[in-house]
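Subject: design request, 119 residues
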């Protein structure tokens, strides 16, 4: 059974999915908008991302990095849903590997998630 725990992340709501039985991985999901910053961690990974907007163009950008922090045979990624399109970062693995990402689309909100999975 997957347990859901709500917590605050830099003034915006975040949901931590623990156990990952349904999805097959563990991760943190967060919805953010213009000016929000996130620093999620899960066992074996950490990430940082910032969300910015260009009001005159009605665009939103998410920019950050994801890092594998544990020698456990898993990789880490960030996935973001921007205006109905899903983007995924390059895989960060093995331990110590850090991958950067940046995506822009129309809109004002981004739902992003840090997760690990078996490599």
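Subject: RE: design request

Done. Sequence follows.
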């Amino acid at each position: 059974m997957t347990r859901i725990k709500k917590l605050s992340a830099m003034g915006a709501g975040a949901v931590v999915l623990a156990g990952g039985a349904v999805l097959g991985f563990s991760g943190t999901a967060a919805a953010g908008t213009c000016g929000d910053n996130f620093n999620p961690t899960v066992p074996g990974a950490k990430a940082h991302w910032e969300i910015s907007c260009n009001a005159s163009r009605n665009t939103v950008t998410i920019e950050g990095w994801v890092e594998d922090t544990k020698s456990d045979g898993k990789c880490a990624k960030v996935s973001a849903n921007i205006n109905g399109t899903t983007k995924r970062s390059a895989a960060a693995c093995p331990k110590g590997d850090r991958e950067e990402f940046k995506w822009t689309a129309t809109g004002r909100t981004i739902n992003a998630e840090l997760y690990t999975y078996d490599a």
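Residues 1-24 have pLDDT under 50 and may be disordered.
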